[in-house]
């Protein structure tokens, strides 16, 4: 198997959950910054004109969640059975819904929308608290079953960026707080967050966070 290539801009953004998955599982990959010459060189190559993109040998795959699922299938990060895989999909779709709300705030309505976004955040996080506490995720660090999945990286990143925006947002959610701390304590994740590239990279392309 050749080395994967992750093609993305020099921001955390939608690339971060993929990076976390690679780092935490010791999967070698190469980062390609498509920011230079984006419009002429890179955008026309992408099936939907957007990144992140994953190169897996000759296979070029776009759409963040398709990439996460592809890596989940290939690296045993997609549950123990079909029902767990479906629950992982369900949670990952919930993550996507909140990520889109977050991105809409960041890129389209930051100044006017921030207070209302923060006020509504507890109601957005409550379903995750419930699902994870039903699964004992405060002990296992797994949002589904007893096996890590790609959704754990996506959820960790979602909780992380929301805490940058609203530092107290997990305070009323004991399971999410414990789950988040378990992810932070994983050596692969901790090492990644200690790296210069992580520390220097903005979360979003417009510098808002
Ligand atoms: N549904 C797609 C997915 O999940 C959405 C992808 C998407 O919105 O993969 N991609 C954006 C980049 S993410 C894109 O390709 C936002 C980060 C923007 C960073 C900007 C530059 C930073 C420079 C340091 N956008 C480009 C485009 O649409 O032409």
From TrEMBL:
GO molecular function, one term: glutathione transferase activity
Pfam families tied to this protein: GST_C_3, GST_N
UniProt xrefs under PROSITE patterns: GST_CTER, GST_NTER
UniProt GO cellular component terms: cytosol
EC annotation from Swiss-Prot or TrEMBL: 2.5.1.18
InterPro entries documented for this protein: Glutathione-S-Trfase_C-like, Glutathione-S-Trfase_C_sf, Glutathione_S-Trfase, Glutathione_S-Trfase_N, GST_C, GST_pi, GST_superfamily, Thioredoxin-like_sf
GO biological process, one term: glutathione metabolic process
Residues annotated as domain GST C-terminal: 81-203
Domain GST N-terminal residues, every copy: 2-79
Keywords in alphabetical order: Transferase
Domain of life: Eukaryota
Family classification: Belongs to the GST superfamily. Pi family.
Assembly mode: Homodimer.
Protein name: glutathione transferase
């Amino acid at each position: 198997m050749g080395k994967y290539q992750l093609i993305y801009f020099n921001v955390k953004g939608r690339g971060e959950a993929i990076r976390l998955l690679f780092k935490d599982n010791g999967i070698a990959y190469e980062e390609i910054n498509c920011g230079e010459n984006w419009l002429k060189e890179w955008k026309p190559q992408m099936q939907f004109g957007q990144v992140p993109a994953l190169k897996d040998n000759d296979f070029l795959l776009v759409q963040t969640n398709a990439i996460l699922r592809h890596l989940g299938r290939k690296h045993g990060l997609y549950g123990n059975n079909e029902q767990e895989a479906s629950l992982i999909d369900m949670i990952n779709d919930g993550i996507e819904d909140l990520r889109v709300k977050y991105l809409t705030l960041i890129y389209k309505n930051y100044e006017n929308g921030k207070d209302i976004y923060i006020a509504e955040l507890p109601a957005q996080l409550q379903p995750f608290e419930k699902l994870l506490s039903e699964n004992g995720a405060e002990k296992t660090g797994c949002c589904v079953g007893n096996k890590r999945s790609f959704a754990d990286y996506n959820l960790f990143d979602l909780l992380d960026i929301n805490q940058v925006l609203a530092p107290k947002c997990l305070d009323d959610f004991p399971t999410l707080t414990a789950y988040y701390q378990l992810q932070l304590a994983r050596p692969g994740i901790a090492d990644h967050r200690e790296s210069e590239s992580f520390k220097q990279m903005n979360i979003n392309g417009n510098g808002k966070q």
